[in-house]
Amino acid sequence: MLKHWTTHAEYQQFISVAVSQLNYSQRKKLASYSDSLEKLTSLNLDPVGEHLRPYYSDTGRPALNQPEILRSFVLMMDQGITSLTNWVETLQSDDLLALMIGCTTDSLPPLGSYYDFIDRTWLQDSESQKNGRDDLLRYDKNHKRSNKTSSVKTGSDKKLPNRHPGITKVIADYAREGKEFHFYYEKLLQELFSIIAIVPSMELGLIPQNKATVSGDGTCVHTHSSPYGHKVCDCRDNGILDCTCDRHFSDTDASWGWDSDLECHYFGHTLYLLTHHNETLKTDLPLHIRYFDARRHDSVSGLVSLAEFHALNPDFPLTNLCLDSAHDNYPTYNLCNEWGIIPFIDLNSNRGRPASIPDKITIDTDGTPLCQEGYRMVHDGNCPGRSRIKWRCPLICGKVNSCSCKDSCSPSPYGRCFYTKPEWDIRLYTPVARGTTEYIKTYNNRTGSERVNNRILNDYKLHSMRIHGKKRYSFFTMIACINIHLDARLKKTKSKAA
Known about the structure:
By secondary structure, the chain is an alpha+beta fold. The chain has three domains: 8-120, no CATH class; 152-348 and 444-497, 2-Layer Sandwich (Nucleotidyltransferase, domain 5), CATH 3.30.420; 355-424, no CATH class. Helix content is 36%, strand content 15%. Strands 3, 6, 7, 8, 9 and 10 form a six-stranded mixed β-sheet that branches. The protein has a three-stranded antiparallel β-sheet with strand order 11-12-13, with no helix packed on it. The chain has a two-stranded antiparallel sheet with strand order 1-2. Helix 6 packs across helix 7 and helix 10 packs parallel to helix 16. The protein is globular and about 90 Å long. The relative contact order is 0.12.
């Protein structure tokens, strides 16, 4: 039962009264927490209470201090503490930290209440959970790794090809029909994140309310759990070192995947994020959080994340979508076209020339027409009325200094012109042509996803947390992302005051 949810006004009143009663030394110490306190006092949790109420029973013992627990999670990661047990002990010995979450040291929630709050936000009942940490599983559960058979180079990175190329069309069809994906236990967390972070950031102008550019990328999250499990038998005592008895596995959700940065296999999960870069504040904001199997290809993760984000935030003004070459597939382009999204996707160099392009036109790898001399033609705008893209002679446009075929190419002082049609190939001829200044400038936003990944894993120390399972990783990643939004609010406040 959710008996009482402390309102934001009540919390601010509590802070005001408590601070007024502090002595000089306590006030001086509280000054060192000024940024953290400002973050918490700007965090309005009133809408969260109404959204969570249906997930509590109407009878039974009341659940106390729920907004204080959520605030406590935010402050814990803000302070760089990676152990929940240590954090609860720290609160009990530091009355200022307890004050900041809205409690006194004699009214702090116990450790079990924190875990209960995490469990409530995960939409998976115990009956549907096949493998728990207390279950015994086969010894070779995680022995099979993904095979790195062939790789596709994209710059300095090497990415594995999708094991099931046809799956992207299946996922896109699901998204187009508005179907919910199976095993979608993160939905409530994503809804809470939208309420706590995304909506307020849009109201504060941190995210534009029209024509927003969004980037997507996946990153490897290495779990601290052993892939080989923990023996509970007495075979070792009997001299049997290579037994095949069933074992305990701390992270039953983890699997083997390929880390293209380190060029090695890893055991853990894939975190996929959608982000937005605020050009004015030079800050990056997470928009959608989703964990997948480590072996899941980014082309699948990207489509699932896009579909979920689109369903959860139907009013979000997603105009441009920036993705790397792992997402270079026709279902993604087709879905973006149907939803009115302009794709900015790096080309996969492993693909050949589409058969739909007329043979009389010679093109570069990105679809740009080549002149008789082999120079890339210059993009000169679109012709919306005739649904075609215009390309002009590179010599006339000043992109090359000389050309041996300038007299035989075209007698017109305007130079030779080529026209391409998006209907020839939706992948090569996107609404904003590749190689143009607009395309390059927009696509540069994609690096924001990598910076957000770094902030979550390193600045907020998710990689240092000894947690296991998608439930824990998803929850604490959401808390880290809330902190990132609060940091942006704080940065905006300071920039105004400067």
